[in-house]
Amino acid sequence: MLPSYLTVAAILFCIGLYGALVKRNAIIVLLSLELMLNAVNLNLVAFSKYGVVPSLTGQIFSLFTITVAAAEAAIGVAILFALFRLRGTVNVDEFDKMRR
Amino acid sequence: MFNIDFTGEFAAFFVFSAIMISGAVLMISLDKVVHMVISMAAVFLGLAGMFVLLEAEFVAFVQVLIYAGAVSILMIFGIMMTKHHGGGRERAKPLHETLAAVSALSLFGILFYAIRTTAFPEPQPFQAGEDNTMAIGELLYTGYVIPFELLSVLLTVAFIGAIVLAKKEAD
User: Fold this and answer.
1) Quick count: other Cβ atoms within 10 Å of Cβ B157?
2) Do A31 and B40 touch (CB under 8 A)?
3) How far apart are CA A13 and CA A30, in angstroms?
4) Is A12 at the interface with chain B, CB within 8 A?
């Protein structure tokens, strides 16, 4: 079963990578990042059951990843609000200057 | 190559992976931003089901709470507070999109080749413990105390920073 889980995780990761590279809307880019992190979580939990030495450590690691991803999403949306107030747009290809 | 016996686990795995992959593809291809977030919520729920299959009930519960609950709502709030004219019409950039598709597909090819050619040794039986949540809690407070505390500091700093960033400057 382990290769099947890893394959699904790889598919999700690649879809997330494509979305993060192609989409212009910053919120969708953030969502694609979340998708990639979720694929990594699936790998961690799959190895925690089907790895050579199964243990709960993989689940603990995935909990840490979920926490950091939640912090990342909050910071990302906050930065997006600040940029939106400054520029009036959420398209990533118009965020090309560090100053106003 | 795919020596899979059709058990109940495989059927459930198939259903969940179909939900997740179709949700992810819909997220890429839909037109309106809110619909994209809703299809991502489907992906998060499918992943939670997959965690249950992998005997990680606590992680599945956290997944539903944090992702399907908090992150989706946060993204919907983000959409509501910012302006989206024209339903997010994408300007066509064929070269850029082709390059991105080629790189994502080649990455998937490499990963798939690596997964298929690796001989995974037969795992020892997995003991999830009587109570998954209790086992995780004990491990978190014995072996992983320092990362746990560091993570709580990180969360505090991140959320205070988010509030400061998103607050309107009092002029």
Assistant:
1) 12
2) yes
3) 14
4) yes
Q: How many CA atoms lie within 13 A of B111 on its CB side?
A: 21
C-alpha to C-alpha distance for B67 and B56, rounded to whole angstroms:
16
What are the pLDDT tens digits along chain B (171 aa)? Answer: 455 667 778 888 899 999 999 999 998 888 888 888 999 999 999 999 999 988 888 999 999 999 888 999 988 888 888 776 654 455 667 888 889 899 999 999 999 999 888 887 777 777 666 788 888 888 889 989 999 999 999 999 999 998 888 887 655
Q: Do B56 and A49 touch (CB under 8 A)?
A: yes
Q: Say which CATH topology domain B1-89 has.
A: Four Helix Bundle (Hemerythrin (Met), subunit A) (1.20.120)
CA distance B11 to chain A (A): 12
Q: Which of B67, B133, B156 has the highest number of chain A CBs within 10 A, making it the mutation to test binding with A?
A: B67
Mark yes or no for CB contact B43/A66 under 8 Å. Answer: no
Nearest to A68 by CA among A95, A21, A36: A36
Quote ipTM for the complex: 0.89
Are A24 and B105 within 8 A, CB to CB?
A: no
Domain residues for the domain of A26 are 2-94
Instruction: Tell me B123's DSSP state.
Output: P
Can you give the residue ranges of every domain in chain B?
1-89, 129-171
| Residues 30-89, chain A, touching B (beta carbon < 8 A) | 30-32, 34-35, 38, 41-42, 45-46, 48-54, 56-57, 59-60, 62-64, 66-75, 77-82, 84-85, 88-89
| Domain-located, residue A99 | no
Please, which residues bridge with residue A91 across strands? A25
- Tell me the CA end-to-end span of chain B in Å, nearest whole number: 66
CA-based nearest residue to A46, from A99, A3, A16: A3
